[in-house]
Amino acid sequence: LALGLREDMYITIPRNRYDQLKASMNIRNRIMAPINKGQEIGSVEIKLDGESVFHAPLIALHDVADGTLWQRLKDEARLLIE
Fold first, then answer.
1. Which CATH superfamily groups domain 3-81?
2. CB atoms near residue 59 (< 10 Å)
3. Among 3, 7, 31, 36, which residue is least crowded by beta carbons within 10 Å?
C-alpha cells in the first residue's frame, strides 16, 4: 500500500541542520481492504531538537479492492498466527 501526504511538504530549518531532523510514522496496526484513495491510514511527524516542526496525516495514494475469498481467508489465518 503506497502512502503519502495530501499536499507537498515544505519546512524551513536553520542552515546545516537537515541531518538533525527526525521523522516518525504512526500507522494503524491492522489495515483492512477495501481502502479508498485519500483514506487516512496514519500520520507522519518531523522533529528538530525534539520539537515538532511538521505533522500531517498519511493517506492511501490509490484504491485497494477487497481480495478474493481465498485471499481473505489466507490473510485472516496469518493474522491469527501473528
1. D-Ala-D-Ala carboxypeptidase, C-terminal domain (2.60.410.10)
2. 19
3. 7
